[in-house]
Amino acid sequence: MVEQNSKTNPSRDNKQNNFSSSKSYPLTNENQKEKGKKSSNRKWLILVLIFIVIGLGVGIYWYFFLRGYISTDDAYIESDRVAISAKILGRIDRLTVDEGDTVQQGQLLVQLDATDLHAQLNQVEANLNYAGQNAVLAKVNVKLAQSDFERALLQFKEKIMSPEVYDHAKQALDIAKARQDIALAEIKNAQTAVDVVKSQIQNTSIYAPMNGVVAKRWVLPGDVIQPAQPVFTIYNLDSIWVDANFEETKLSAIYLDAPVEISVDAYGGTKFLGKVIALPAATASKFSLIPPNNASGNFTKVTQRLPVKISLKIPDHIDSDHLLLLPGMSVTVKIPVRGESE
Fold it and tell me: Is CATH 1.10.287 what the domain over 114-203 is classified as, yes or no?
C-alpha cells in the first residue's frame, strides 16, 4: 500500500523538489553578493597599489633628478639673424642663392636691374662735363675782366678815364669772379649727382654681411621691391644660444655662469652643456606687439615670463657633424638653484 501511494502521487514528489529548490535561491544570491564585494575590494586594492607605485616613482624621480633644480620647456634655440633687403627701389634681375644655401661674408646674393641708373649716370656725367666747361669759360672771363680792370685802374690814376668807366670795369671783374664761383659750385653739384647715381648702382648688388645659412627667400626674380623690403633671411649657425623663459618667481634662484643641462627635443636623450650668460632686463611681455596695460581697473595678476640667455655647447664626445642645431628648435633646460652647485 505504501509503495502504491508513492507511485500514484508523483506530483507530490515534484512539489517537494520544487519547494526544496526554491529554498536554495536565497543562499545563491548571498554568495554572489559576497563574491562581488570581494572582487570590488580587490579592484580597489589594485588601484590603490598602482597609485602608490606611481607616487613612489614620481617621488624617487623628483628626489634624484629634480630636487635642487629649476627647469622649463619654454625654451628655444636662437642665433644671430639678418634680414637682407635693398636700400633702393628696383626690380630683381637675379638671385644667386636659394633657401638652405650656405653663404660667406661678402658673397653676392641679389642683383637688381641697373639699366635706368646707368642712363642716369650718363646724364649726370654729361652735366658734370658741361659744368666743367662753364668753369673754364668763367676762368677765362675772370682773366679778361682782371686785365681790363688793371688797365682801367692805370688810366683812372692818370685821369685819362672817367670814374664812371672805371666803376664799370671794376663791376665787370666782380661779376666775372661771381660767375666763376657759380661755375665751381655747379661742378660740385654735378659731381655729387654723379656720386649719388654711382652709389645707387652699387646698391643694386647686395652682398652677404656675414657667414650663415639662407633660412627664407621672400621674393623671386622679376619682383619689384621697396627699400627695406626683405629678400632673404640669414641665420648665423656658428653663433647659437638658448632663450629660456622662466617664471618670475624662479628668477632669484638663477645666477650668472650657472651650469645648465640642455636637452634638444629633436635629439632625444642627447645632453648638451651650457651656462647662463645673460639675465633679463625686462619681462617677455614688454617686447610683445601690444604690451599689456594694467592701469585699468580690470587688472588680473599673471605670472610673468623672463627670458634668460644660455650658451649652448656640444660636448666633445658627440660628433657634431651629425647634429644640426637650428634656430627655433624646442629644448628643455635644467639649472641648479643658487646654493646647490656653489
Answer: yes
Cell numbers 666763376 label which residue?
180
For the chain, residues with pLDDT lower than 70 are: 1-38, 61-67, 294-297, 317, 319-321, 338-342
> Tell me: the pLDDT tens digits for 98-156?
999 999 999 999 999 999 999 999 999 999 999 999 999 999 999 999 998 888 888 88
Q: Do domains 66-81+235-336 and 114-203 have the same CATH topology?
A: no
Domain extents in the chain? 66-81+235-336, 114-203
Distance between CA 278 and CA 244 in Å, rounded? 11
165-197, pLDDT tens digit by residue? 888 888 998 999 999 999 999 999 999 999 999
Question: 113: exposed, middle or buried (C-beta count within 10 Å: 0-12, 13-18, 19+)?
Answer: middle
Predicted model pTM? 0.68
128 within 8 A of 191, measured Cβ to Cβ: yes
- Supply the CATH classification number for the domain 66-81+235-336: 2.40.30.170
